[in-house]
Design brief:
- It is a single chain.
- With about 725 residues, the chain is of the alpha/beta class.
- The protein has 30 helices and 21 strands.
- It has an eight-stranded mixed sheet with strand order 14-13-12-15-16-17-18-19, with helices on both faces. Strands 1-2-4-6-8-11 form a six-stranded mixed sheet, with helices on both faces. A three-stranded mixed sheet has the order 7-9-10.
- It starts with a strand and ends in a 7-residue tail after the last helix.
- The protein binds nicotinamide-adenine-dinucleotide.
- The site of nicotinamide-adenine-dinucleotide has 24 residues, from helix 13, helix 16 and strand 17.
Length: about 725
């Protein structure tokens, strides 16, 4: 069965219906694109056909390109994939250009057949690029639908003509939110942004499309850039207004990306250079820039981690082969910040929730938290009153453990205290079915130790959410020593229900994410103690593409939490504890009541409303800034290696079993520089041998924490890469 069907009705309107068999969303493949080309030829050659409707047989139009296609082209082309990628991109341009010219006479621009895109629902990537090549875009007034070009979010830019067409339709400045930020817009907003022409009730979509096709004139179907005397809206680069736009855009892109995202730079290049030349040349320029991005290791790494591997993990790449474990009734112990957040996301996903706390007041407060999130959604028009009532109706807040009867999963989120956790585990287990799975949301306590309080350690597991639960997409699942496969499958099925991304790791101090993030924060603080200029530390991190510098990060997560973790770690490690210099700074800040954002005072200063100002100017009084400052790369290497070496050690020790999880988890869990594709991808881009040389230098200057792990040395010595050695299930894109 083909991905498209072709039909012509009695009035001579041909319809291309995109409906990929067996999938809920249309994605474009090489074969389907060839089929589009054939259908265009057929419709243009058939004198009975007056015009074309391009639409979808599904509730949505398209999710975009199947990015596996790019990976396959690259593989097939062997050592020099650039020409194959360029040819593939150009062939796409030719097909869509053929659709756009629609058989019209090249000189008179007359005699073409009108083409309309009838978009029933969400439309992204190549779907939107096809729509942009049509002469008119009509979208159903579907409140769940969005349209846009989100390629930039996975390290690409719209390379199927979307960049050239959309920037020429609305001007470079107006196109920026869609092209550069990858914003997906609801129908009304998309119309205001010039991405579509009309919004109609869903039931009228095809009738209206047909009406337009049958009434369109020659003038209606000539694109502005094919008309004589066309000028770029907002001005081309050498027009005074255009000059200002491009200078501004350049600065904005560099400001936002710090120059580390090749796709953003390439996108701007394609728009700028394309604006200076005729349309078809501009498409060739777009294809060149697109190929250069596809060839950039950063883009391949981003596609691999943020698209291919993220999706593979969400689909259960590491799920044990046991029966479906969909959660029906969830019990949550502890209705504090985390418990309340978990209750909200679960109820929102359709799961019945019993939310327990020691006092009714506290349990109610947890439910009120969910109500607050729903109210915010209502204010933004995203949540209806019915939806709010429905979600809240699924949460029962109580102190009564008997209400847990019939729960198939418990998530415990009480205080971070072994004794308290043991007590509630026993109480809950007395009330739940014997088959239920018990999960703890602890962030620091070993799962295997907590499992000792359980009667059924095989059914005991860690499900570690990140804060704020409703916004953070990663969930870390921790397998204790005795945790069985059903518990792992249960946790994975639960995360799938919540539409979040799971990683599964083994039990060890701080599991995976916190294990890597703590050394990052500590390295930043350590540098403050050494007299490194705090602004240098923070900017070095930002220039690496980290959303927050280490000092801002500890302000956000709170300095007293850092103190608590430091005390517990010191107690557990004894003399081997390596972070005394860090504690000197951390404890001093805590003693001064500077606990971070929550106390409106930390490494940063804050205004009365809690808004962050700049770095606290008295820091240098406490930890004088040294006369000689390290150079930027040294600071960056320290910040990067502090995290990356922990990731390698986690792999070496078997805490991580799959480097895909290490990479995806790092980006989603703590914002590890997304352009790199994650710690393992970064090591591969840098080259393991170079990484070892950097570690050797850092070890000499700063101590054993930078010693290259044996595994890294081995990968380097054998001339391997991490994905080459460990990524057989996760080939580079
Ligand atoms: P919190 O202090 O906001 O909430 C804990 C809740 O547990 C409180 O409402 C408290 O009344 C309740 N509680 C305490 N003893 C109880 C008992 N015996 N029976 C029933 N309820 C009881 O804490 P939190 O930040 O929500 O953290 C909860 C857990 O999640 C901890 O284990 C923490 O380590 C972990 N965690 C926290 C974060 C974070 O960023 N805060 C992130 C991941 C995991």
């Amino acid at each position: 069965m083909s991905d498209f069907t072709y039909s012509v009705d009695a009035d001579g309107v041909a319809t291309f219906t995109w409906d990929v068999p067996g999938k809920s969303m249309n994605v474009m493949t090489r074969e389907a694109f060839a089929r589009v080309s054939e259908m265009v030829d057929t419709a243009l050659a058939d004198p009975a056909v007056k015009g074309i409707i391009v639409t979808s047989g599904k509730k949505d139009f398209a999710g975009g390109m199947d990015l596996n296609v790019l990976a396959r082209i690259r593989e097939e082309a062997g050592d020099s994939p650039a020409p194959a990628l360029f040819d593939f991109t150009m062939s796409g341009h030719h097909i869509l250009r053929k659709l756009e010219r629609a058989g019209m006479d090249a000189k008179t621009l007359k005699g073409g057949k009108p083409v309309v895109c009838a978009i029933p629902g969400t439309c992204a990537g190549i779907g939107t690029e096809i729509a942009l090549a049509c002469h008119r875009r009509i979208m159903a007034d579907n409140p769940k639908a969005k349209i846009g070009l989100p390629e930039i979010l996975v390290g690409l830019f719209p390379g199927g003509g979307g960049t050239t067409r959309f920037s020429r339709m609305v001007g470079a400045m107006a196109a920026a939110p869609v092209l550069l930020e990858g914003k997906m817009l609801e129908p009304a907003k998309a119309r205001a942004a010039g991405l579509i022409d009309e919004v109609v009730p869903a039931g009228d979509l095809l009738a209206r499309a047909k009406e337009w096709v049958l009434s369109a004139t020659d003038a209606d179907i000539v694109k502005p850039w094919d008309q004589k005397g066309w000028k770029m809206p907002g001005g081309a680069p050498y027009h005074p207004a255009g000059f200002m736009t491009f200078v501004g855009a350049n600065a904005m892109v560099l400001g936002k990306t710090q120059g580390v995202y090749p796709a953003a730079k390439a996108l701007l290049g394609a728009v700028y250079e394309g604006a200076l030349v005729p349309f078809d040349t501009a498409l060739t320029i777009e294809a060149r820039w697109f190929t250069s991005v596809l060839m950039d290791p950063s883009s391949s790494a981003m596609i691999r981690s943020l698209f291919l591997n993220k999706e593979a993990l969400e689909k259960g790449a590491n799920r044990p082969d046991v029966a479906d474990q969909t959660v029906k009734k969830l019990g949550i112990l502890g209705a504090g910040m985390m418990g309340a957040g978990i209750a909200y996301v679960s109820a929102n996903a359709g799961i019945e929730v019993v939310l327990i706390d020691a006092k009714q007041e506290a349990a109610d407060k947890g439910k009120t938290h969910a109500e607050g999130i729903l109210d915010k959604g209502m204010k933004r028009g995203k949540v209806s009153a019915e939806k709010k009532a429905e979600v809240l109706g699924r949460i029962s807040a109580t102190t009564d453990y008997a209400a847990l009867a019939g729960c198939d999963l418990i998530v415990e989120a009480v205080f971070e205290d072994m004794g308290v956790k043991a007590e509630v585990t026993a109480k809950a287990e007395a009330a739940i079915p014997e088959t239920a799975i018990f999960a703890t949301n602890t962030s620091t306590l070993p799962i295997s130790d907590l499992a000792r309080a359980s009667k059924r350690p095989g059914q005991f597991i860690g499900i570690h959410f990140f804060s704020p639960v409703d916004r953070m997409m990663l969930v870390e699942i921790i397998r204790g020593r005795e945790t069985g496969d059903v518990a792992v499958a249960k946790a994975l099925d639960f995360v799938r229900q919540l539409r979040k991304t799971p990683i599964v790791v083994n039990d060890a101090r701080f599991f995976y994410a916190n294990r890597c993030i703590i050394p990052y924060i500590n390295e930043g603080i350590r540098m403050v103690a050494e007299g490194v200029e705090p602004a240098l530390i923070e900017n070095a991190a930002k220039l690496l593409g980290f959303p927050l510098g280490p000092l801002q990060l500890v302000d956000e997560t709170s300095i007293d939490l850092g103190v608590k973790i430091a005390r517990a770690t010191r107690a557990a490690m004894g003399d081997a504890y390596p972070d005394g210099a860090v504690d000197a700074v951390l404890f001093a800040m805590a003693d001064k009541g500077r606990l971070g954002r929550k106390s409106a005072a930390g490494f940063y200063a804050y205004d009365d409303k809690g808004g962050r100002l700049g770095l606290w100017d008295e820091l240098s009084g406490l930890w004088p800034v040294a006369e000689t400052q390290p150079d930027l790369p040294e600071v960056q290497h320290r910040l990067m290696m502090a995290q990356v070496l922990e990731a390698v050690r986690a792999l070496e020790e078997g805490v991580l079993e799959d480097i895909r999880e290490g990479d995806v988890g790092a980006i989603l869990g703590w914002g590890f520089a997304p352009w790199s594709g994650g710690p393992f991808s970064w090591l591969d881009i840098l080259g393991p041998e170079k990484a070892v040389a950097i570690c050797d230098g850092l070890e000499k200057a700063h101590g054993a924490r930078f010693a290259a792990p044996t595994l890294l040395r081995e990968v380097a010595a054998k001339g391997q890469t991490f994905y080459g050695r460990f990524g057989s299930a996760a080939k580079a894109a």
